[in-house]
Amino acid sequence: GAGVSQTPSNKVTEKGKYVELRCDPISGHTALYWYRQSLGQGPEFLIYFQGTGAADDSGLPNDRFFAVRPEGSVSTLKIQRTERGDSAVYLCASSLKGPGGIQYFGAGTRLSVL
Amino acid sequence: QQQVKQSPQSLIVQKGGISIINCAYENTAFDYFPWYQQFPGKGPALLIAIRPDVSEKKEGRFTISFNKSAKQFSLHIMDSQPGDSATYFCAASMKKTSGSRLTFGEGTQLTVNP
Known about the structure:
- With 114 residues, chain A is mainly β.
- Chain A has strands at residues 5-7, 10-13, 19-24, 31-37, 44-50, 53-56, 65-68, 75-79, 88-95, 104-105, 109-113.
- In chain A, strands 2, 4, 5, 6, 9, 10 and 11 form a 7-stranded mixed β-sheet that branches. Chain A has a 4-stranded antiparallel β-sheet with strand order 1-3-8-7, with no helix packed on it.
- Chain B has a single domain (4-113), classed as Immunoglobulins (Immunoglobulin-like).
């Protein structure tokens, strides 16, 4: 089937606004991950879902960041009161089983906070 | 805290040459070491991976060499081609932690000249 799909591909917003980034994982993949990639850097872990629950959200930088996966498939990363430092590419990955499984990445959402 | 250090930051190789990228890790609990390839505007894609019970793994032109005692591993690309020009990331994970969340190196931008 199709790979991991992320929408929008680009998002430009103003400082202080609220944004939502969407991830459609590969069908049947129970594990879902969000990473953030700053320019010229490697991706950094944000949060991991196994099914509907956030099994590990220790990578979220602060309480302005929140993610949900209500039906165990699509996930939404939500950022409140955006700051210029939030500008980055937000990557989503999914894995068939989670621990030990290969993570397949989407193309990411490039967020620009003006 | 940077747990995976990658070098060099950039690499220029002539077509047909060998590209070598090195990584070092700190956490001895890591048990999975993948390499990802990323083209501009795309998400990282798994290239090749190794577990610490093996010292070398080869897939086509790509080879991982792993030195457990030195906590180092490297990617060798034989007969490098212009199409290999991309950013390469080493990573590490622990199966028992956070669904095998990936810790990435800083990346190496490889340019293969024709």
